């Protein structure tokens, strides 16, 4: 069976998914929608897909089996509910939104519909990350240190807090999610955000240029996340997990794994493309009618979003925010 796919959004992330889907034999992209029709036509032409005039037209269960929702997080109102209510399986890019109650309603609608769904936290699909998860499953972590430094997203909307949610919610969310995936759920968070340089680079920006976040996990482990989106001369991401009898490090967004303990000291570099593995797992899940190999579902994405939103609330209120279930 070929899985017929519609795509909402024709920007950079949508084109990245299109590239992966072209290499998946089970996948066939048959329709594209974007508010920018010229962009939709350009992307559709790559694979010979049709251009839909509206979201309602694209979300036709007689035409597509699944949809990739790649619209920006500020432009997704009602999309997941509409797709799931029509029995259309869905892949949704991260972050899931900008307001938790709305995402909670969507998660409930998706869960009750029974459709297969996946969220774009592709780093979970690295074999190195899977190896780290297996190693850490019976270990006691007492400290986690994470950071991500680099440049900004090219889209002007990304620099507006009310449209993107900021660097932590939109990009560093991958590190936030990986900590959850490997070490368990967050208990609380305290954060500070700075605006020292962003105006000199982007005068219209309202997002922070740097953040310093501290947290506690449900396990009792404590940790920090530091980040910058205007570090143009040094880009780096890393997560370190410390135990009294081991060390685990993941650098390069998870591509390079280091494990050190009394029996071993290894460094492994992944050769996988996690975005391809993620999209392949979703397409195969739709074809098989089983979600077993999907590593990030909507509820996972919701919990990761809850942490980033709580971090910004903490900065606004100048206090520690407890993370709810």
UniProtKB/TrEMBL annotation:
Residues 3-121 form the Gfo/Idh/MocA-like oxidoreductase N-terminal domain. Residues 141-243 form the GFO/IDH/MocA-like oxidoreductase domain. It holds the Pfam family GFO_IDH_MocA. InterPro entries: Gfo/Idh/MocA-like_OxRdtase_N, Gfo/Idh/MocA_Oxidoreductase, GFO_IDH_MocA-like_dom, NAD(P)-bd_dom_sf. One of its GO terms (molecular function) is nucleotide binding. Gene3D superfamilies: Dihydrodipicolinate Reductase, domain 2 (3.30.360.10), NAD(P)-binding Rossmann-like Domain (3.40.50.720). PANTHER family: D-GLUCOSIDE 3-DEHYDROGENASE, UDP-N-ACETYL-2-AMINO-2-DEOXY-D-GLUCURONATE OXIDASE. This is Gfo/Idh/MocA family oxidoreductase. The lineage of its organism: Bacteria, Bacillati, Bacillota, Bacilli, Bacillales.
């Amino acid at each position: 069976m070929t899985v017929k796919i519609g795509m909402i959004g024709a920007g950079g992330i949508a084109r990245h998914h299109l590239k992966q889907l072209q290499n998946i034999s089970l996948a066939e992209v048959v329709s594209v929608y974007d508010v920018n029709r010229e962009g939709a036509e350009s992307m559709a032409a790559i694979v010979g897909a049709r251009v839909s005039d509206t979201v309602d037209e694209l979300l036709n269960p007689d035409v597509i089996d699944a949809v990739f929702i790649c619209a920006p997080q500020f432009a997704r109102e009602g999309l997941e509910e509409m797709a799931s209510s029509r029995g259309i399986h869905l892949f949704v890019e991260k972050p899931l939104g900008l307001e938790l109650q709305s995402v909670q309603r969507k998660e409930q609608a998706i869960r009750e519909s029974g459709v297969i769904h996946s969220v774009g936290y592709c780093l979970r699909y690295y074999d190195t990350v899977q190896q780290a998860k297996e190693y850490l499953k019976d270990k006691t972590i007492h400290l986690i240190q994470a950071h991500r430094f680099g440049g900004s997203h090219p889209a002007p909307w990304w620099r507006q807090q009310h449209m993107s949610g900021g660097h932590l919610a939109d990009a560093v969310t991958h590190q936030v999610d990986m900590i959850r995936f490997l070490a368990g759920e967050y208990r609380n968070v305290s954060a500070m955000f700075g605006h020292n340089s962003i105006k000199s680079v982007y005068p219209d920006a309202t997002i922070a240029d740097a953040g310093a976040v501290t947290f506690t996990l449900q396990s009792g482990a404590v940790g920090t996340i530091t980040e910058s989106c205007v570090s143009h001369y040094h880009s780096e991401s890393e997560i370190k997990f410390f135990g009294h009898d081991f060390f685990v490090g993941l650098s390069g967004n998870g591509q390079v794994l280091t494990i050190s303990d009394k029996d071993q000291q290894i460094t492994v570099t992944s050769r996988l493309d996690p975005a391809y593995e993620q999209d392949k797992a979703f397409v195969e899940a739709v074809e098989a009618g089983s979600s077993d190999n999907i590593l990030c579902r909507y509820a996972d994405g919701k919990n990761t979003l809850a942490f980033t939103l709580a971090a910004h609330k903490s900065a606004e209120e100048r206090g520690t925010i407890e993370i709810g279930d």
